[in-house]
Structures
1.
Amino acid sequence: MSLGIAKDTPESLVTLLRTGSAADILVTIGGASVGERDLVGAALRSEGLALDFWKIAMRPGKPLLYGRLGNQRVLGVPGNPVAALICGLVFLVPMLHRLLGLREDTPGHVEATLGKTVEANGPRQHYMRATSQWEGGERRVTALPAQDSSLMADFARADCLIVRAPDAPALPKGARVTIIPL
């Protein structure tokens, strides 16, 4: 069920949190970072959130939060649309699979071959938007040149995500990588 869009006030957020209190999982989008209008964490804490984690070493998606309000699981994904979609794929889909008792609890991670070199990665796990094509029976993937998480058009062009571990070295064309097909 959709609870709607909260106003940027603690009272509006608390009202919607209480409206959704019977759900098994509560997913919030936006407002979980540290800006002046990021009120979700405080509203959740005022309702008794037992926070398991907040802010993760992931790009995009750093301001993700997870905790529980009683028996309810709470997942707060970033408000940036690309980050929200990737966090939903990486965290929400496996959670739903587990709760439903499905065997596969992670998105289909597969291997592919790089079509172009990728630079060394920074300190956060990076989910790089990429395109792929089949050549000679193998999947070749090429990271899109712009990885800024505000670029929805580039996300729409992507058909997979290249998963780069924190501090991973640069990889040459032809290297094997893990991807998540979209």
2.
Amino acid sequence: MSYKGKYTPSYPKKYKGDLDNIIYRSLWERKFMIYCDNNQNILEWASEQVIVPYRSPIDNRYHRYFPDFYIKVKESNGTIKKKIIEIKPLRQCVEPKVKKRKTKGYIYEVVEYAKNKAKWNAAKEWCLDHGYEFQVLTENELGIK
């Protein structure tokens, strides 16, 4: 089941973007928004504000990828880092196992994995060029079972 809604930050000065249009597309994204909003080590954050161009392996054309989050965080050693964060289920982060029957569901999984891989490779390059780090967080990192 997909959950979608608007988020209103408790600390709006930390948010970099349109405060009236903070949309979460899953409860995991909402949980991460609450974490960013309430964590004093997160100095600023934004949702879907960064645009990364990528070439899709499906149609070989350029598209725009909007990673889920940008954060500026103060690390435990005092350094400040900027990160691009994508929230995804673990099952979408691993290549689908080859199946004998090529069902619609299997084909969808293969296509989504290929698109995600292209997006994430482009995001890693973009981050290297701009002095950011890129991370994909799954239910494991978010502490969700």
3.
Amino acid sequence: MNGRPLSKEQIKQLRQLLITERVKCAEEIKSLAQDASKSPREASGDLSAYTVHLADMAADTYERELSMNIVSSEQEILYQIDDALKRLEEGSYGVCQQCNQPIAMSRLKAVPYASMCIGCQRVKEQKNKR
């Protein structure tokens, strides 16, 4: 971006990227939530009257918890995408919310919902590691 505002064509392209990403994310959440809501027997396809082995139940529980954690992460990305679309409408999209410098176009294409430049994002991640 090099300090210049986004062109109308870039805004159009990035809006489409955000919308596409939002649809994929919402579909993933829906799919994972449906899978996680199934009982262990339904998930395995075993609808017989035999009991389920304790190890199988533990594995199923682990898989459901993992799916729900992924849903949580996807939900967070969905919020970030919605926030990016809002910033796009307000005209503040593409500007780092930390240092107010333009976010590189290559970063916006890779992570269209990015709210920080790569430098500020690195600093934030380093702080979170501690």
4.
Amino acid sequence: MSGTRRPRGGLLLAARAAPLAVAALATLLGGCSGDFDRPRPLVFGEDSTFGVPLALVEPTHSQFAFTDAERRMRELAYPLLLPPDGGGLWELVPVDLSYVAVMADQGPPYDIKAYGTTLMTIPARSEVERYARLIDAITADMSVIDHFNPTARHVLDGDGERLRNLSAVPGLTEAERQSARARVAENARIIKRVGACLRLRAAAYRYAAQRLAIAVPSHLLADVDRKLATYERRIYPFDEVSDAAPLGGVHSGGVYK
């Protein structure tokens, strides 16, 4: 188990002791997380980055503590692994529980149409507000991506060093070797999942823009198009990070369809 601080929420401690309960909860709810661009209230503390607590744990097969970069990468990955749309019962789940479910590949599935549907149906004073919500969501994503990329590169550099040292450090136990390989695989899994989800998010935003263009045409569509083009270009540098993540030992299962 990792050496991260334990959150004060009793629900998370229960989730760690009973991961099958978390899976059952995620399956039962089957909706989407978030409150449509507003971070869900936390059940413990206010120490957070991008609305995510700084003291969360992840199901892990490694006995090693997370490095600062590994922990930071997970904090930044969490909002990108969730669908961008709100609604459904997932928004009622405390963030400490949903974090464990998402990091265990038991989070909500992506539906690229859902964000646009929600954007078109939530109360709004005018189409300007709907366009502004979409632009704000894309902008917020880009801020997270700009922090995630260098952090993931730092993690990959550390994993490369970790793997090189497996054959150079004498006296390693088999448990230490397995823990090192498990952590490398876990890091790679998160990086590759973020890369896949970024494309799904871009598709969801594009779908929403297209529906706005039909339902409530506005000169603001040009602003959305420019913002989306910038967003999609932001994903390309991530490809280098994702391609560098080692494949060995990374399972391909997940719920992001």
